[in-house]
Amino acid sequence: MTEIALKNVYKAFDSVEVLHGIDLQVQSGQFVVFVGPSGCGKSTLLRIIAGLEEVTSGDVEIDGEVVNNVAASERGLAMVFQSYALYPHMTVYQNMAFGLENSRMPRDEINQRVSKAAEMLQITDYLKRRPKALSGGQRQRVAIGRAIVREPKAFLFDEPLSNLDAELRVTMRKELAALHANIGGTMIYVTHDQTEAMTLADQIVVLNQGRVEQAGPPLELYNTPQNLFVAGFIGSPRMNIVQAQLARKGEQWILKSGQTEIMINSLPDLVEGEACSFGIRPEHIKLANADDADASVIVELTEQLGGETYIYCRSEDLGAFNVHQAGQIPVKRGEPLHLNFERSSLHLFDKNGKVLANGLG
Amino acid sequence: MASSASLPSRTWQFLTLRRGGKRWHWTDLFTYGYLGLGIFLMFGPVVWLVLSSFKTPAGLLEFPPTWAPLGQVVVEVEGYKKPLPMYRVTMEDGTTKDLAQIRRIGIISQMLDPADPSTKYKIPIKQREPIREFRMAWENYLDPLERFNFLSYLTNSVIVTTLATLITLLINSMAAFGLSIYEFKGRNAVMLFVIGTLMIPITVILVPVYLVVTELGMVNSLWAVILPGAATPTGVFLLRQYMLTIPRDLIEASRMDKATEWQVYWRVVLPLAMPAVAVLAIFSIMWRWNEFLWPLIVLNRSEVYTLQVGLNAFQGELDVQWHYILAMTVVTLIPVVVVFAFLQKFITTGIASSGMK
């Protein structure tokens, strides 16, 4: 069981800084997912943990030991690459055995470990094939198998599913979750796909422009995003975010966006006239009658999936606005739609994007 | 389809392929004419070399030269040490007779009839024609191989070529590995420096290299030929360019797999660079086999001669033994031709990727 800690890690390539002081604790046996848009530094962070990149400043600790100057080969971690990085000139068996041969393990044990891993990943039939003769999913399994046989201190995954087609991705995602449940090692997983992050992670770390925006369990990030970026990034379809202004009507606080006024309960730090933004997820919006609606929008497009309906709307005050409803909603393009926002699911952010309240009950 | 046709007819079909379809266009004729000229220019001398290598010394000196190895018919006549050449002579009365020439004085040749050696004739040389027959002068090949130790030259050449190629491949690939896989300051400068040595012709560094070789006591040993040319800028360049195309992920994956740097080189990079290594191997074999100037300088005893130097030995100041030179040139050509014929695909890739021959 392995703990990994990053302490104030900075990384710069020449004069370009890509990581600005990352502090992070990965608990033993946890499945941690680094998620963020491309270019946010998540892969760099993973490579720093792996030992493939050096830190500019700060410390990387594995089990309490600073490993800044320990070579990748000595850190005892295994990595699965986005491109799989299978050795094309070796068979599947040789690919999996390579790491073990390098640590001078006896033949018998290599055999045993490889066949055990192959069985677990259902690639026993392909052991004699070259990677070229395998499909994407099979290559993926071999790459994972190559990591498993090493029995490493921790597994590092660098966008391992991004080269697979959508269907296979879902299957492999489930298998990875099962694998983690099975062998229970510490795993760090990098992806730009928030669905993968939500489904796999014990702990999600949202990165943006070289900084940790928020770290926590998936539902915590979903329910209580700490800033606009996390609110917009986690959840699919995206949260609707509307620019507004804090105003007062007598004792009643309202969020004012154009003609639309949304009444909210008072909070300690509200300043009248201050710019702010509020967010509501498409699934937390109710359809209402014209007289008791919070806002009205015009339908632009509907996606009827049978069990659920996505309605893409627009209004002058709210801009583009998406609604998600269970069941089948018979609305057509151009029709007006009256919406009611669940106050308990309304998120309020200040002008700098920091959260003021998650839930305005 | 042509697949059902027999091989010769398919070959013919291929050789008479025409533009677009059925009719001969003038560009077809032009193309075939141009290609034919090319074949003649490049292949003609080789064919002539092979044919001439089977000619006797006399046949070689004949003017006008003949294509085929025709040898003059000779007869043994009692009382004469050497075999006498046969001529067809037009006698004064208009009849023709086959006579052997004893000697020639000016424009008169002294002849005799082999059937009746006692009668001598004096014939003006204009009236005789040599009688020739098609004869392969195998002795051109056999003599040097038996008498002149050509087999040991051949062995030397094989040793030099094999060892030098192996050493070249090893150290060039190691240099290329360092210059492609590692990123360090001045990497490109080092590479430029290596490439820069291409601009120095061997003749310029002949003397200093000779001094080094002498100091190391390697003169007149095969090592003197093998070692100095082992590191080739072309080879380093060729291999490095290829290794740059190997995905970095593979190198990193092998490092994550606890591979030492030697294992990364030996077990991952080198096998993946095999196509380029093969190209360099072919080049190296051709270079070493054909190398002449340097061996000529450092190898002075005939036991250590390589083929090319051995060939040169037939060329005296006053007497050039063309028949041996031609025959042994054919022998030295064979390995290179074989290498080329089987591996020409690699060679063309090599030239395409390095721009060098």
Describe the 3D structure.
The complex is a heterodimer of chains A (361) and B (357). Chain A is α+β, with helices and mostly antiparallel strands and 361 residues long. Chain A has helices spanning 42-50, 92-102, 107-121, 136-149, 166-183, 194-200, 218-223, 228-233; strands at 4-13, 16-26, 31-35, 57-62, 65-66, 77-80, 154-158, 186-191, 203-208, 211-216, 240-249, 252-257, 260-264, 275-280, 285-287, 295-304, 308-315, 319-326, 336-341, 347-349, 355-358. The mean pLDDT of chain A is 91. Chain B is of the alpha+beta class and 357 residues long. Chain B folds into three domains: 44-69, no CATH class; 74-130, SH3 type barrels (Roll), CATH 2.30.30; 140-354, MetI-like (MetI-like fold, Orthogonal Bundle). Chain B contains 15 helices and eight strands. Chain B has helices at 7-15, 26-52, 57-61, 139-147, 150-181, 187-196, 202-215, 223-226, 233-244, 248-256, 261-272, 274-290, 293-298, 307-313, 322-354; strands at residues 70-72, 74-75, 84-90, 96-105, 108-113, 116-124, 128-130, 132-134. In chain B, strands 2, 3, 4, 5, 6 and 7 form a six-stranded antiparallel β-sheet that branches. In chain B, helix 4 (139-147) packs across helix 15, helix 5 crosses helix 9 (233-244) and helix 5 crosses helix 14 (307-313). Chains A and B meet through strand 6 and helix 2 of A and helix 10 and helix 11 of B.
What are the SSEs and their pairings?
The complex is a heterodimer of chains A (361) and B (357).
Chain A lengths: L3 E10 L2 E11 L4 E5 L6 H9 L6 E6 L2 E2 L10 E4 L11 H11 L4 H15 L14 H14 L4 E5 L7 H18 L2 E6 L2 H7 L2 E6 L2 E6 L1 H6 L4 H6 L6 E10 L2 E6 L2 E5 L10 E6 L4 E3 L7 E10 L3 E8 L3 E8 L9 E6 L5 E3 L5 E4 L3
Parallel strand pairs in A: 3-8, 3-9, 6-7, 7-8
Antiparallel strand pairs in A: 1-2, 1-4, 4-5, 9-10, 11-12, 11-14, 12-13, 14-20, 15-19, 16-17, 16-19, 17-18, 20-21
Helix pairs in contact in A: 2-3, 2-4, 3-4
Chain B lengths: L6 H9 L10 H27 L4 H5 L8 E3 L1 E2 L8 E7 L5 E10 L2 E6 L2 E9 L3 E3 L1 E3 L4 H9 L2 H32 L5 H10 L5 H14 L7 H4 L6 H12 L3 H9 L4 H12 L1 H17 L2 H6 L8 H7 L8 H33 L3
Antiparallel strand pairs in B: 1-8, 2-3, 3-4, 3-7, 4-5, 5-6
Helix pairs in contact in B: 4-15, 5-9, 5-12, 5-14, 6-9, 10-11, 12-15, 14-15
